[in-house]
Amino acid sequence: MLTTRTTFMTMCFWACIMVFLLKPFPTEAGQAVRLVTGDDYKPFTDQTLPQGGMITEIVDHVFQQLGYDAEIEFHSWSRGYSLSKEGDFLGTFPYVKTLERKEEFYFSDPIITVTNLFFVRKDADISFVHDSDLKGLTACKPLGYSLTDIQSFMDQDLIAVQRPNTVESCFKMLHRGRVDLVPINEYVGWEVARQIVGREDVFRVLDRPLLEDGLHFIVTKKNSQGLEIVGRFNEILRQMRDESNLDAIIDRHLYSE
């Protein structure tokens, strides 16, 4: 009897710990949900941007429509991802799908779809028709960013990769000739280019696209309500798209001065 009681108490203890850690989805409207994102991903997310960036505003609007107050924190990408995976935050954004991430998280529908391209110096004698055109070049991709778009070139030993902490660092290295390529989606790339040198004409993009991918809101699979959360998120996102509210937010962040 003592052993059974001890086992029961132990199970209850760990159940309580898991409930505390996984921060289940609130059952009453008006309650707060904790979300996390990162800086250095303009125009999508950054603390210095109005409403924290385009996707931050969209995610906040979705949870408002669901009846919840989104408390959005900014951490380094690696820390935010790790804390979200363990359930310290209800969810995080914006992330592209990778095999590793799909094993650990549930993904929403794409919030926005982006095209990744190679940015190079405008005066660089670099073309990109065949994979072999990249032989011997060095790319720059910040820590915490997916390597999916350039993995095949790495596997063929065509390019080397440097991984500083920020996109800004990559573009500074590109500007100074320390790297040859920055693979990034066109929105972020041109935003950072303007920030680093004050204008766009120092850089250009190579014509051949790397990939087209979606940016998603994600919830850890350790959360038993993860599929429900993502499903409800998708419903509001579709509603926003149907009513053109999504386009209004996107246009405001992309085209307002």
Describe this structure in words.
The structure is a single chain. This protein has 2 domains: 25-111 and 214-255, Periplasmic binding protein-like II (D-Maltodextrin-Binding Protein, domain 2); 113-212, Periplasmic binding protein-like II (D-Maltodextrin-Binding Protein, domain 2), CATH 3.40.190. The protein is built from 9 helices and 10 strands. It has 257 residues and is α/β, with parallel strands linked by helices. The protein is 40% helix and 21% strand. Helix 2 (54-66) packs across helix 8 (226-242) and helix 6 crosses helix 7 (186-197). It is globular. Strands 1, 2, 3, 4, 5, 8, 9 and 10 form an 8-stranded mixed β-sheet that branches. Mean pLDDT is 88; it is low at 6-24. The protein has helices at residues 2-22, 54-66, 77-86, 99-104, 151-155, 167-175, 186-197, 226-242, 245-255; strands spanning 32-37, 69-74, 91-95, 105-107, 112-121, 137-140, 159-162, 182-185, 203-205, 211-220.
Write the SSE topology.
Blueprint: H1 2-22, E1 32-37, H2 54-66, E2 69-74, H3 77-86, E3 91-95, H4 99-104, E4 105-107, E5 112-121, E6 137-140, H5 151-155, E7 159-162, H6 167-175, E8 182-185, H7 186-197, E9 203-205, E10 211-220, H8 226-242, H9 245-255
Parallel strand pairs: 1-2, 1-3, 6-7
Antiparallel strand pairs: 3-10, 4-10, 5-8, 5-9, 5-10
Helix pairs in contact: 2-8, 2-9, 6-7
Summarize the structure.
The protein is 40% helix and 21% strand.
CATH architecture of the largest domain: 3-Layer(aba) Sandwich
Number of helices: 9
Distance between the termini: 72 Å
Radius of gyration: 21 Å
What is the number of beta strands? 10
Which shape, going by the Cα principal axes?
Answer: globular
